[in-house]
Structure formats: C-alpha cells, structure tokens
Amino acid sequence: MASLETAPPNPTIMGPRAIQALARRIDRPLVLVGLMGVGKSTVGRKLAALLGFGFVDADDEIERAAQMPIPEIFETYGEAYFRDGERRVIARLIEEAASERNKVIATGGGAFVDPATRALILEQAIAVWLDSDLDTLVERVSRRNTRPLLRTGNPRETLERLKASREAAYSQAPIQVESRAGPHSRTVHAIAGALEAFL
Ligand code: S3P
Questions:
Q1: Which pTM value belongs to this model?
Q2: What distance in angstroms lies between residue 52's CA and the mean position of ligand 1's atoms?
Q3: Over the chain, what HEC string results?
Q4: pLDDT tens for residues 11-48?
Q5: Which residues of the chain are modeled with pLDDT < 50?
Q6: Residue 149 CA, ligand 1 centroid: distance in Å
Q7: Is ligand 1 within 6 A of the CB of residue 62?
C-alpha cells in the first residue's frame, strides 16, 4: 500500500470493470472525513453506489440512537455529550462494517478530530479526507441551517478557524481528495482513482 495518495484535479473515469475490480480489492470500510460542507454524505452515498457497497451516515445514526436531531442534542445536553455519543456510534459502525466488509461511512466534521475515533479509523478502515476551499464550503453550508456550530457567529470565520485547527488531524488520512465546486460525481471518480493508486 502506498502511504499517501492525493487525487489529481482531473480524474480519469474508470470503466465498470475497473470499478468492479477495485471494489473487490477494498477489504476495509471507507470512511469519509473532513469539514462541514465538503459533501461527505452526498459523495459517500454516490461512492457506495458506484462500488456496490452499503452506505451509512454517522450523523444519522447518532440522531437515531439519541432519538433527537443534532441541533437539539447540542442545545439540550451540550457538545461534550454529542461527542461522547459520536465516539460510541462510530466505534459501533466500524465494528459492524468490519464484518460486512463493503461499506462507506460518512462522518460528521468533528469525528476524526477525536483522538480515539481517529486511531480506530486509521487502524480498521481507509480514511478519505475530502477538502474544499473556503468559498465552496461557505456556499454549501449556507443551503441549510442544521449545523449547531454555525448557528452563532459568522459561518465563514468559524469555518476558517475550524479548517486551520483541524487540518493536522484530517491530514493523517492516507487518501486526500479535493471536493471542488461542481458535480459531486467528479469527486467520486477522483476518490476511486486515488483508491486504485493507494491499494
Ligand atoms: C460537526 C459537523 C456536523 C455534525 C455536528 C458537528 C463538526 O456534521 O456532526 O454538527 O464538528 O464539524 P457535517 O460535517 O456532516 O456537517
């Protein structure tokens, strides 16, 4: 396995047979990490469909476990409580995915920043860091108001601060792909190409 794979800006589109062959070589869950607004859930769902894998969104699972939407968890119990739940839910998803083998997991932006969650993902899965420039992030997060960390203050400033403070954690992912403005399918193919080179 190569140590680090950064996807080229213009990915080659792999054909169905190459994708099938790639899917067979992937023996661990794929976990998408990165900031709010990079498109982890949408890209993750499309990547899973391309590879013929299952898909699970960690934030959805946290909401299901808590029987409460994320903004309400933050409001009622605070961020530390959310992070505890997030750590437990991701550990369970990784454990389940290990037996199911073919799975794409999208995580919330703070998950990979937690040392225990990061160590688990790095050990048991293949982490893919999706990154975008600040303008793209700001535009994407403006589409819905469901992110507690962006409800107060200026979203651009918050994202800029989080980008700087979380980069050291995200950059530990062995695969790094830029999720540009434009169709998510392009990012999906960039991930496939990076996986092909990585495995
Ligand atoms: C968070 C990101 C959110 C969600 C929660 C906290 C973060 O997920 O987990 O609001 O700390 O960056 P998305 O990255 O899917 O928006």
A1: 0.94
A2: 26
A3: CCCCEECCCCCCCCCHHHHHHHHHHCCCCEEEECCCCCCHHHHHHHHHHHHCCEEEEHHHHHHHHHCCCHHHHHHHHCHHHHHHHHHHHHHHHHHHHHHHCCEEEECCCCHHHCHHHHHHHHHHCEEEEEECCHHHHHHHHCCCCCCHHHCCCCHHHHHHHHHHHHHHHHCCCCEEEECCCCCHHHHHHHHHHHHHHHC
A4: 778 899 999 999 999 999 999 999 999 999 999 999 99
A5: 1-2
A6: 8
A7: no
